[in-house]
Amino acid sequence: MTRATIDDLVRRYGEGEICTAASPGSETPASVADLTAAQRARIEGALGDADALIDGYVRRRYALPITPEPPELIRAACVLARSDLATGTDLVGSEAMRLARKEVTDWLGRLADGAVSLAVPDAAGAAGASGARVSDRPREIETTGLRG
């Protein structure tokens, strides 16, 4: 399952844009419900690619998977997937789309470097809490064993 869904993309960018981006070179479906299996696979592929890119940054500081998924990462996945989907369509060339992708990748870089953070435990914090423990039997001290 991907971080963001087709419904997340539709909520952010509208059904028309997502249907257009899903069907380069073919007839644009009237609604998301009318998408073919190939068009759905194109969207799911873009969402999967976005997840892979995000995970590359996030795993430097956080244990994956993160549950529940922070809204910042869902937004990032939507921006990246939208940009990938636009390749080869009439949507290419949108300066706003290019800037949004750059903003997200810059933010992910700052996230990986520790300049910004998510409201979830760091991977280092989780690992440090479960370090090695040493125990031994209780010491038995008797007065006959003491010299002095």
TrEMBL record:
<dbReference type="InterPro" id="IPR009752">
    <property type="entry name" value="Phage_Mu_GpJ"/>
</dbReference>
<dbReference type="Pfam" id="PF07030">
    <property type="entry name" value="Phage_Mu_Gp36"/>
</dbReference>
<feature type="region of interest" description="Disordered">
    <location>
        <begin position="127"/>
        <end position="148"/>
    </location>
</feature>
<protein>
    <submittedName>
        <fullName>DUF1320 domain-containing protein</fullName>
    </submittedName>
</protein>
